[in-house]
Specification:
The chain has 17 helices and 20 strands. With about 600 residues, the protein is of the alpha+beta class. The strands form 5 sheets. Strands 1, 2, 10, 11, 12, 13, 14, 15, 16, 17 and 18 form an 11-stranded mixed beta sheet that branches. The chain has a 3-stranded antiparallel beta sheet with strand order 5-6-9, with no helix packed on it. The chain has a two-stranded antiparallel sheet with strand order 3-4. A hairpin with a 2-residue loop joins strand 5 and strand 6. Helix 11 packs across helix 17 and helix 12 packs across helix 13.
């Protein structure tokens, strides 16, 4: 599932990738021998287009277990749509639990998930979309999935439902009240509804139109489902306070303790089984799933540090891994020969340094200091030393919304960036610090640790920028992205992480727009906001292209942050685990985990 104007990003700590779809795997199945380790030396490219669901015949869930890891970060919450829980790590779990009307194939294109239902545009003026939920679709507790669930999904993304000047629901996506003013229209107990857009929406197909179970939220709020739907449609925020309170925090628990089973029904092919804090969470096949069943009964998501993954794969402790791509990691995987399948390719994940614009932060109100820092960051050295050995075609990335391997990249760069930060300029940076009268300013670079590659990046930046007069401090922290952690508190001058996405057209607004949920550094520019407004309210691809150029130039002129490089994708799987397929999108290898099965 995906949330409009949410980043193409999930914040990527170690190798973050947003998790959008799930529940509906795509593309033809592959045998254990169809993706040998030799693939690692092949052309760096996005996998060919997939045109639909894999045809695996009549599936009977196998009594077996397969395991996967994307990093050491623990599970956070069954509710994966809050700003605190919306990450690659948490989404690796929650995307197995909740069905969506669409999913991303390995080619990054959007495909319908016919397990849940169907949708069609029935009017272009105004833009109106009709959704039909599968008549057999039920939550795992036996409750029908209905229009009421869609009304709740709209409510949690609607800031018109508010408590004073604060949105009632703490959702990572907060614009459906403006995008779809009336919300889903249809019988709350029925299976059909329509949504009418205030303006054309380029990303309408990947709106999150169903997510949390409405009947559970209503019950915990002391209401019937119909009463909650009526309150939502009436805009009665007071009546919804208890519902919002539960949605925001009611599914949060202590590490290792799952919410009560009757509070966490699922709409997807897996449900939560058990959780060992700091070690793993086990998902079990949803025996009441109405669509194609999971191929394997248990899916274990292990919390493993990237530098332990290859050994765990070799030992058989983990079946599928997505470590952070490093030269050493690739060499280790290649050395395992035909006992593993190595998965490489371009990804829609990109590394960046973001300034902290919160009040009184070092760089907040001083563009000249931001320029000085940008002048001393050795971007080319970082790419040459850390990325090119993995992808010989890698280059410094000079955009945020377009990737170097995409056709329009050169055109966008030419229109937005003059090359002023291509080369390190120590003397120029020194001169700015002297002019600004700032002596050895401390710059804490925060990131999610441990992370060997980011530690190396910070070391390179320190070696260069300390010469210019900065005092660079490695502020890596295991809890950088945790609720209440370093990033949320703003205890940094520069944040180092990645956004991972799937090529959505409008998602960047959630990162750069004033007051948007993923605008962590509190950046604000009214011209940027206006450009996003023009871009997100039209289907005209020419407007998309021109506004993207304007946005990129404004972000360079302001130095919102400093793009570094597109992540090279690297993963591996045991040779006997079938149907593991690489994708450029934020979902990563786990995108079709429902199809993974061990060969006989």
């Amino acid at each position: 599932m995906r949330f409009q104007r949410i980043s193409k990003a999930v914040a990527v700590g170690a190798a973050l990738a947003l998790a959008l779809s799930a529940c509906a795997p795509g593309g033809p199945s592959e045998t254990a021998s169809s993706a040998p380790a030799a693939e690692a030396s092949g052309k760096f490219s996005v996998e060919p287009a997939d045109t639909g669901l894999a045809d695996l015949g009549d599936i009977t869930t196998k009594e077996d277990s397969v395991s996967y890891s994307v990093g050491a970060e623990d599970f956070i919450s069954y509710n994966g749509l809050t700003p605190q829980s919306y990450s690659t790590y948490n989404s690796a779990v929650t995307d197995r639990l909740f069905a969506s009307f669409t999913y991303f194939g390995t080619d990054g294109k959007v495909y319908p998930n016919e397990d849940l239902g169907s949708y069609e545009v029935i009017s272009e003026d105004p833009m109106t979309v009709k959704y039909t939920i599968n008549p057999e679709a039920k939550w795992s507790d036996g409750t029908d999935i209905t229009v009421a669930d869609s009304v709740l999904a709209w409510a949690v993304q609607n800031t018109n439902l508010a408590d004073g000047d604060k949105p009632l629901f703490d959702s990572v996506s907060q614009d459906l009240g403006q995008t779809i003013p009336k919300g889903p229209e249809g019988d709350p107990a029925g299976k059909e509804f329509t949504v009418t857009y205030a303006n054309p929406d380029p990303d309408f197909a990947i709106q999150t139109m169903i997510y949390s179970p409405a009947h559970i939220v209503a019950k915990e709020a002391g209401m019937s489902t119909s009463e909650m739907v009526d309150a939502i449609r009436a805009g009665d925020s007071d009546a919804l306070k208890e519902a919002a309170k539960f949605w925001n925090t009611g599914w949060n628990t202590s590490p290792g303790t799952l919410p009560a089973a009757d509070l966490i029904p699922v709409s997807g092919p897996y449900k939560l089984g058990s959780w060992e804090a700091g070690q793993s969470i086990t998902l079990v096949a949803n025996e009441n799933y109405y669509g194609t069943p999971a191929a394997t009964k248990e899916l274990v998501i292990r919390f493993a540090a990237p530098d332990t993954m290859v050994q765990a794969l070799q030992n058989g402790d983990i079946d599928v891994i997505e470590p952070q791509p490093t030269v050493d990691t690739l060499a280790q995987l290649t050395a395992l020969g035909d006992t593993v399948q190595v998965h490489q390719g371009d990804t829609l994940t990109w590394e960046h340094l973001d300034f902290n614009f919160t009040k009184d932060a070092l760089f907040a109100d001083n563009l000249e200091l931001r320029k000085a820092f940008a002048m001393c960051v050795p971007r080319q050295q970082i790419v040459e030393n850390l990325i090119k050995p993995l992808n010989p075609e890698a280059q410094v990335m000079n955009t945020r919304e377009v990737f170097p391997f995409q056709e329009s990249y050169g055109d966008v760069v030419s229109a937005s960036y003059a090359g002023q930060y291509d080369n390190v300029d120590i003397e120029g940076a020194k001169k700015i610090l002297e002019t600004e009268g700032v002596d050895k300013p401390e710059v804490r670079i925060g990131y999610s640790a441990p992370n060997p590659r980011r530690t190396e990046e910070v070391a390179m930046i320190k070696s260069s920028c300390d010469q210019a007069g900065f005092n660079i401090v490695d502020a890596g922290d295991p809890k950088f992205f945790a609720p209440g952690g370093t990033q949320e508190r703003g205890d940094y001058e520069v944040a180092l992480f990645a956004w991972a996405g799937s090529g959505q057209i409008t998602s960047g607004e959630n990162i750069y727009g004033t007051g948007k949920p993923q605008n962590y550094g509190k950046y604000s520019n009214t011209e940027v906001d206006a450009a996003w407004e023009r871009l997100t309210t039209t289907l005209d691809t020419n407007v998309h292209a021109e506004e993207t150029k304007k946005i990129e130039k404004l972000l360079w002129d302001d130095l919102f942050g400093i793009p570094l490089f597109a992540h090279p994708g690297l993963g591996a799987s045991a040779e006997d685990v079938l149907n593991v397929r690489k994708t450029a999108t934020q979902n990563g290898l786990v995108w079709n985990a429902e199809q993974w099965v061990r060969a006989e």
